[in-house]
Design goal:
It is a single chain. 22% of the residues lie in helices and 27% in strands. With 163 residues, the chain is α+β, with helices and mostly antiparallel strands. It has an eight-stranded mixed sheet, covered by helices on one side. Strand 1 and strand 2 form a beta hairpin. The chain starts with a helix and ends with a strand.
């Protein structure tokens, strides 16, 4: 009877551990993230080798480079992963360093705010969204994929976002 309880307790602990959104990663370093907006694809690279490929959702008006707050566009250009949010309302998220100096200057020249808070994050439930591209300018993936990405990508990683 005692052995049965011990085995049962171990099974419960293992099951709870498997439910955690925090994963570990011991593979090659992700040296760069490449996003192709038109293809709705994101690649995690170790130099020139693809470690992972993910289908993505984008901002609600994805064509073109993000210029102003509220335009629904996902930025284009070279940025960096600059922060992590383990408590994101979108499961987990990695911050993208938008806006850069050029983005701020362009928006200011036009008397507007460039916006900010652009992330790679998990998706909302599919039945809660109306369109393929639904974010305010972020890059969204499935929640389980975001867990792997969150474990693989370090702050400071380059992200190149192409049209």
């Amino acid at each position: 009877m005692r052995n049965t309880r011990v085995v049962l307790a171990l099974c419960v602990l293992l099951a709870l551990g498997a439910c955690s959104k925090f994963r570990t990663y011991n593979g090659p370093e992700v040296t760069r993230i490449v996003v192709h907006k038109g293809e709705r694809k994101m690649y995690l690279l170790h130099y020139n080798s693809v470690l992972a490929a993910h289908d993505i959702d984008l901002g609600f008006a994805p064509a073109g480079h993000k210029q102003f707050e509220g335009d629904g566009k996902t930025p284009e250009g070279r940025y960096y992963i600059n922060r992590r949010n383990p408590d994101s309302k979108f499961h987990l998220s990695l911050g993208i360093s938008y806006p850069n100096v050029d983005d701020v200057a362009f928006a200011a020249k036009n008397g507007r705010s460039p916006g900010g808070d652009i992330f790679i994050h998990g998706e909302v439930n599919r039945d809660q969204r109306k369109n393929l591209d639904w974010t305010a300018g972020c890059i969204a993936v499935k929640k389980r994929e975001m867990e792997k990405i969150y474990a693989m990508v370090r702050d400071g990683t380059v992200i190149d976002i192409y049209p």
